[in-house]
Hints:
The protein has about 180 residues and is mainly β. It has helices spanning about 80-90, 95-100, 130-140; strands at about 5-10, 15-20, 25-30, 45-55, 70-80, 105, 110, 115-120, 120, 125, 150-155, 160, 165-170, 175-180.
Amino acid sequence: MKIIGFTYRAGAGECEWSVVLKGDSCLLNGRKPLFVPDWTQELCVTPCLVLRVSRLGKEISPRYADRYFDAVAPGADFVAKDLLRAAQAKGNSWTPAIAFDYSLAVGEYEPAPYPALEGRVFAGQELVMTPEEAVAEASKLMTIRQGDLIYIQARQLPRRVEKEEIIRTIIHGEEKLYCKIK
């Protein structure tokens, strides 16, 4: 399983997103807590939409992309902002700051199409691209397979989280994502 992310890059001009690859150990499912790693002093979060890929595809047109995912879920993408700044300053890989264990919390999946999703807007948050654009872009980079996840960040800067904080997403009066920071 691959996790392919499209993250927000403020001030990047026309292309305001970048691609992130995460391993399956980055996934935090259910109502499990996220334990803040000892090696970061500045853990930040950005809301996102997670798509579950339902079939094999390569070079998919945005026109047909909705056929390649069968469910969506709210998500929370975590980043160690202090490590990211240090890696950027030294020209090092960003992977330790963005792809650490349990760095992507995924809420409850709902079948696609999902009423809380309208184009680029999901649960009141503007996404960096539509799900169809994300599937098309991901399939240009690599073959997507059933079970892969594609996540799309909201178009906002990450905000710092504190221990004992609860990250949640409520859609149509139902809690779809719950993650306690410990």
